[in-house]
Amino acid sequence: MASAPAPAKLTVLAGPTAVGKGTVSAYIRQHYPEVWFSVSATTRAPRPGEEDGVHYYFVSDQDFQQMVDRQEMLEWATVHQVNKYGTIRSKVEEQLAAGRPVLLEIDLQGARQVKQAMPEAQLIFLAPPSWDELVRRLIGRGTESEAEQQTRLATAKVELAAEAEFDYTVVNEKVELAAEEIVKLMGVKR
Fold it and tell me: In the sheet that 168-171 helps form, which strands lie side by side, from edge to edge?
């Protein structure tokens, strides 16, 4: 009789805007296919090159609210006072039950909700090497207006102040090194 898979670990990766969560996650996705990444639902419009069901599930405000009302979200939040993002609970639970390590790349509010809903989850804070580097990255990516950049930087200050709530901090000085440290904390063997 086959034994059940070992319990998998749920890991949450959060940090301030423009710290490189997406870049680090993309590296992990490419080099560690055994790690399962949740595809979040969002009410924001797709950015160029993003595909529904691949990068996000793009849903209307009404559909998102119905998912919340039916308690289908492990976590959800309104980000930058504009768009809603959330993690579909059943998708995460299915992967954990199958013994697959799960990595959620989410914001601070979501990390707090996951920790409340699943206290066994480990939280990793992705930090910038410095405030100046964070500002440079945000402005350099050129995806937000100047007003939105200012809003995101104000949010980043709040997010940086929450670092102590996390189990671990990984500084994103170099993508490959940050990714490898995160995967090691997840217990993924190479």
Answer: 36-37, 102-105, 10-14, 122-127, 168-171
